[in-house]
Every structure is written in C-alpha cells, then in structure tokens.
Known about the structure:
This protein is an all-alpha fold.
Amino acid sequence: MLDFGPLLLFFTAYKLFNLYVATATIMAAAVTAVGIGYWLDRKIHPVPVFTAVIVLVFGGLTLYLNNDMFIKMKPTMIYTLFSSLLLGGLYFKQPLAKHVLGMAMSLSEEGWRGLTWRFGLFFLGMALLNELIWRNFSNDIWVDFHVFGAVTLTVLFSLSQTPFLLKHQVEDEIPRADQSDR
Length: 182
C-alpha cells in the first residue's frame, strides 16, 4: 500500500479535480509514505526516499511554474536513473539487481548479470515509452498509462522473467539434517 497508495491518490485527485491537485496530492502522499515506512520498520528505505525527492522536485516545479510538463517528466527521470544505475553498475562489474533482490533469491553470477541487464533495458524502454505518451497524447491518456499501464507492464515484465530466474537459480548451500548425519 505504501508503494501504490500515492499513485492511487494521484489518480483519484486527477479524476476528481485536475493534474495540479493530483500533483500536490502525490507530493504529500510520497512524503507520508516515507514517514509511515520509517515508523513501521524503523529504518529509511532508499528507493521510496529517492522517489519522494524526485516527486517533490518535479511536483514542486509543476506547481511553482504552473507547467504540467514537469510532473509528466518525473517517471522518465526515475526510469532513466534506475536504468543508468543498473547498466552503469554492470560497467563496474556490480550487478546491482543482486543488491536489491539478493535477500529474496539466490542466482548464479551470470543470472544476476542477466537480470540486471534485462531490468536496466526495461527501465530504459519505460522511460522512452513515458516520453512518447506524454508528448503525443492527452493528459487523460498519460494519467491512465502512468497509473495502470506502467504498473501492469512492470508486473508483466517481472513475471516474464520467471523462466530466466528458474534457469539461473542456485540452491542454498545449507546442508540438510538427513545428509549431515550420514
């Protein structure tokens, strides 16, 4: 809910009012989500903080300059930064997907590199798609894409990686009790 709540509030505020009210709403919701995340876990999570900062900067520019271009560019900036971090990490031989997902799964080094490439290119594609949509379609279409299309594409892309993950999964090296007794 902390990840999707601000997005749903943005959508609701847009449908009830306009893009500027929706922008102010997502700014407040992003900061609130970071605060609630800290209250629940007693630690700062970097991705929501980064997202909140970008929302505040681009949302602030949108409201201050009365120009909705900035809030429409926000997803492009986030996707581009994620892509740059992932692909740049590979340049320095650091598959950053391992640092983000390493607690949830065990993959071979080749698997981590491949997954990092795949997500880096996916986020680059999402940045380009966001640019294409906001520059060529109405606010209504962009908001619908931003709230529903981008989330759906991300979930579908993530699910499509299952065969790759299974192929590169490594078993944990914890000996089972029945084998250690022999």
